[in-house]
Amino acid sequence: MIQVLIDADNVDVVRICAVLRLLPDDGVRMTVAGHPGAIESTTWPAYAEVVAAAGWQRADMVLAAAYEPDEAPLVLVSGDGDFGLLLTRHRGPVLVVSEAASYQLRAQGVVVDPVLDGVEPLRQWLAAVL
Protein backbone atom coordinates (compact mmCIF):
# COMPACT_ATOMS: atom_id res chain seq x y z
CA MET A 1 0.00 0.00 0.00
CA ILE A 2 1.26 3.46 -0.86
CA GLN A 3 -0.12 6.60 0.77
CA VAL A 4 -0.53 9.71 -1.40
CA LEU A 5 -1.43 13.14 -0.05
CA ILE A 6 -2.12 15.87 -2.61
CA ASP A 7 -2.42 19.55 -1.76
CA ALA A 8 -4.24 20.71 -4.90
CA ASP A 9 -3.83 24.36 -3.84
CA ASN A 10 -0.06 24.13 -3.61
CA VAL A 11 1.05 22.24 -6.74
CA ASP A 12 -0.06 22.94 -10.30
CA VAL A 13 -2.09 20.50 -12.37
CA VAL A 14 0.83 19.57 -14.69
CA ARG A 15 2.87 18.23 -11.78
CA ILE A 16 -0.14 16.52 -10.21
CA CYS A 17 -1.03 14.77 -13.47
CA ALA A 18 2.54 13.50 -13.85
CA VAL A 19 2.16 11.71 -10.51
CA LEU A 20 -1.31 10.39 -11.29
CA ARG A 21 -0.15 8.84 -14.58
CA LEU A 22 2.57 6.83 -12.84
CA LEU A 23 0.69 5.52 -9.80
CA PRO A 24 -0.44 1.89 -9.88
CA ASP A 25 -4.12 1.10 -10.35
CA ASP A 26 -4.41 -0.56 -6.95
CA GLY A 27 -2.72 -0.47 -3.58
CA VAL A 28 -2.97 3.32 -3.33
CA ARG A 29 -4.62 5.26 -0.52
CA MET A 30 -4.98 8.82 -1.84
CA THR A 31 -6.36 11.93 -0.21
CA VAL A 32 -6.71 15.15 -2.17
CA ALA A 33 -7.65 18.47 -0.61
CA GLY A 34 -7.94 22.00 -1.90
CA HIS A 35 -10.12 24.82 -3.05
CA PRO A 36 -13.03 23.61 -5.23
CA GLY A 37 -11.54 25.33 -8.29
CA ALA A 38 -8.23 23.51 -7.83
CA ILE A 39 -10.00 20.20 -7.25
CA GLU A 40 -12.10 20.56 -10.40
CA SER A 41 -9.05 21.19 -12.59
CA THR A 42 -8.05 17.51 -12.49
CA THR A 43 -9.71 14.16 -13.09
CA TRP A 44 -9.03 12.09 -9.98
CA PRO A 45 -8.87 8.29 -9.76
CA ALA A 46 -12.04 6.63 -8.50
CA TYR A 47 -10.25 5.45 -5.35
CA ALA A 48 -9.19 8.98 -4.32
CA GLU A 49 -10.84 10.68 -1.38
CA VAL A 50 -11.32 14.22 -2.68
CA VAL A 51 -12.19 16.94 -0.16
CA ALA A 52 -13.04 20.51 -1.12
CA ALA A 53 -11.47 22.67 1.57
CA ALA A 54 -11.39 26.43 1.12
CA GLY A 55 -9.85 28.83 3.59
CA TRP A 56 -6.53 29.35 5.28
CA GLN A 57 -4.80 26.00 5.84
CA ARG A 58 -8.05 24.01 5.57
CA ALA A 59 -6.57 21.70 2.92
CA ASP A 60 -3.48 21.19 5.10
CA MET A 61 -5.69 20.17 8.01
CA VAL A 62 -7.60 17.66 5.86
CA LEU A 63 -4.37 16.08 4.64
CA ALA A 64 -2.81 15.99 8.11
CA ALA A 65 -5.94 14.26 9.46
CA ALA A 66 -5.87 11.72 6.62
CA TYR A 67 -2.19 10.88 7.14
CA GLU A 68 -1.49 7.52 8.76
CA PRO A 69 2.01 7.04 10.19
CA ASP A 70 3.36 3.69 9.09
CA GLU A 71 6.24 2.15 7.15
CA ALA A 72 4.55 2.22 3.75
CA PRO A 73 5.81 4.58 1.05
CA LEU A 74 4.43 8.11 1.24
CA VAL A 75 4.09 10.54 -1.66
CA LEU A 76 3.41 14.12 -0.62
CA VAL A 77 2.42 16.41 -3.48
CA SER A 78 3.00 19.80 -1.86
CA GLY A 79 5.79 22.25 -1.22
CA ASP A 80 4.29 23.53 2.02
CA GLY A 81 6.75 23.43 4.91
CA ASP A 82 3.88 22.84 7.33
CA PHE A 83 4.12 19.16 6.36
CA GLY A 84 7.73 18.91 7.55
CA LEU A 85 6.77 17.77 11.03
CA LEU A 86 4.38 15.19 9.62
CA LEU A 87 7.19 13.74 7.49
CA THR A 88 9.52 13.43 10.49
CA ARG A 89 7.01 10.93 11.95
CA HIS A 90 6.95 8.79 8.83
CA ARG A 91 8.97 5.57 9.15
CA GLY A 92 8.85 4.62 5.46
CA PRO A 93 10.29 6.13 2.29
CA VAL A 94 9.07 9.63 1.40
CA LEU A 95 8.79 11.34 -1.97
CA VAL A 96 7.89 15.02 -2.20
CA VAL A 97 6.58 16.30 -5.54
CA SER A 98 6.86 20.07 -5.84
CA GLU A 99 8.36 22.84 -7.87
CA ALA A 100 9.37 24.76 -4.74
CA ALA A 101 9.61 22.43 -1.74
CA SER A 102 10.49 24.10 1.53
CA TYR A 103 13.70 23.29 3.39
CA GLN A 104 11.69 21.31 5.96
CA LEU A 105 10.44 18.98 3.22
CA ARG A 106 13.81 18.69 1.48
CA ALA A 107 15.35 17.54 4.76
CA GLN A 108 12.84 14.68 5.10
CA GLY A 109 12.62 13.01 1.72
CA VAL A 110 13.47 12.84 -1.95
CA VAL A 111 12.15 15.90 -3.81
CA VAL A 112 11.19 15.68 -7.48
CA ASP A 113 9.80 18.30 -9.81
CA PRO A 114 8.41 16.37 -12.80
CA VAL A 115 8.46 19.51 -14.96
CA LEU A 116 12.15 20.27 -14.39
CA ASP A 117 13.43 16.76 -13.61
CA GLY A 118 11.13 14.80 -15.95
CA VAL A 119 9.07 11.80 -14.87
CA GLU A 120 11.92 9.28 -14.82
CA PRO A 121 12.92 10.07 -11.18
CA LEU A 122 9.27 9.52 -10.19
CA ARG A 123 9.14 6.25 -12.09
CA GLN A 124 12.42 5.06 -10.51
CA TRP A 125 11.33 5.97 -6.97
CA LEU A 126 7.99 4.18 -7.37
CA ALA A 127 9.67 1.09 -8.86
CA ALA A 128 12.12 0.99 -5.94
CA VAL A 129 9.46 1.20 -3.20
CA LEU A 130 6.73 -0.88 -4.81
Strand content range: 15-25%
The count of β-strands is 6
Let me know the average pLDDT.
Answer: 91
Spatial ordering of strands, largest sheet: 3-2-1-4-5-6
Order of helices and strands: EHEHEHEHEHEHH
Counting helices, strands and paired strands, the structural category is: alpha/beta
Give the helix tally. Answer: 7
What Rg do the Cα atoms give? 13 Å
- Top-tier CATH class: Alpha Beta
Total number of domains: 1
Largest sheet: 6 strands, parallel
Task: Tell me the helix content.
Answer: 25-40%
In the CATH hierarchy, the architecture is 3-Layer(aba) Sandwich
What is the CATH topology assignment? Rossmann fold
Shape: globular
Query: For the terminal residues, how far apart are their CA atoms?
Result: 8 Å
Low-confidence stretches: none
In short:
The chain is an alpha/beta fold. It has helices at residues 13-22, 36-40, 58-66, 84-89, 103-106, 114-117, 120-129; strands spanning 2-7, 28-34, 49-52, 74-77, 94-97, 110-112. Strands 3-2-1-4-5-6 form a six-stranded parallel beta sheet, sandwiched between helices.
List strands and helices in order, with pairings.
Blueprint: E1 2-7, H1 13-22, E2 28-34, H2 36-40, E3 49-52, H3 58-66, E4 74-77, H4 84-89, E5 94-97, H5 103-106, E6 110-112, H6 114-117, H7 120-129
Parallel strand pairs: 1-2, 1-4, 2-3, 4-5, 5-6
Written account of the structure:
The protein has 130 residues and is an alpha/beta fold. The chain has one domain (2-129): Rossmann fold (3-Layer(aba) Sandwich). It has helices at residues 13-22, 36-40, 58-66, 84-89, 103-106, 114-117, 120-129; strands at 2-7, 28-34, 49-52, 74-77, 94-97, 110-112. It has a six-stranded parallel beta sheet with strand order 3-2-1-4-5-6, with helices on both faces. It is globular. The termini are close together. The model has no long low-confidence stretch (mean pLDDT 91).
